[in-house]
What does this fold into?
Amino acid sequence: MCVVSDITERKIAEHHLAERSHELEILNQELSKAVEALAASNAELVAARQELEHLAQHDNLTGIWNRRRVEEAAQQEMLRKARYGHPVSMLFIDLDHFKRVNDTHGHAVGDDVLKAFCDIASKCMRSTDMLGRWGGEEFVILMPNSGLMIASLLAERIRKATLTYAFPVAGHITVSIGVAECRDDEAWEAWLCRSDAALYAAKEAGRNRVISDAVGSKETDEAELLDLDFLRLVWRSTYESGHSLLDKQHQNLFEHANALLTSVLSERPKDEVLPQIEALVADLLDHFRDEEAVFRSIGYSGADEHAQTHQGLIDRAGELVAIFTSGELALGDLFNFLAYDVVAKHMLSEDRKFFGHIQAVRDTAV
It folds into this structure.
């Protein structure tokens, strides 16, 4: 009897254990479903938040940045300029006579024109440039690490690309563009006002043109350096130092820069432009060496400081060429350094500090 009782009790225990195990399995399944539902709900919340953030920063029609996001980015770039001294410029763009498009063809065609223009501008821009819709048919492009010269080149490229594009239904449309570089310690409102004033000047001058806000000696020099009709750097007699070797070398550097600019604008492959870059950097080394020998021979007091500036430019050029060769830097960004930092800022600013000394020594010799 005891044996039978033990077997019965064991079977009852096993039955209860099986039932409990089944109950736990059901609970585990329900818990898994709850966890999956919670994860799905969380994913939906994350997606909804991302969608809201996107809508808060982007224009609903064109998909590019909206006015609020442009202002935020501009403030960030201005802080970067204040901390590191990197230039930043703005393009203020208006589609000429856009109201006629809406009145003649309807707002749907007008919307298509706005979206097509964004595609045109984006294809002209560098990867670091930022495009936003300011409102209506007005757009803003922020250009980090870019002075007035580089910004004006991009503006002209966009103007020409828009002019030659045949918009479906609407046909040919032009744009007017105002360009302004942010000044030291300038408020956002003041910078925006200058770019807006340049845009207004472009429209008043007949539209379909680029006007740069060139106030101040450095900005004026950069504006004069450009021939926007042919998208090239222009050598002028006012850039001459009076020393034949240095002036010849400066002109040669302009020619190299223009050849590189042509490659930038035509988007030539890296293996084709790398020899151009190496030749330009080699010429810079020769020029800096000869220039240092000249201003030491005439007793220029800023010789040591100027030589240090040369070394800094050469070191930076070597770094950027290496990064470009590795595929981590766009050709346009490299050209921006060579054209802006070396040609515009150095040759048209720093080098001029000793031009008067050359003239004085020559006059004394006479």
Notes: The chain has three domains: 1-57, 67-226, 237-365. The radius of gyration is 32 Å.
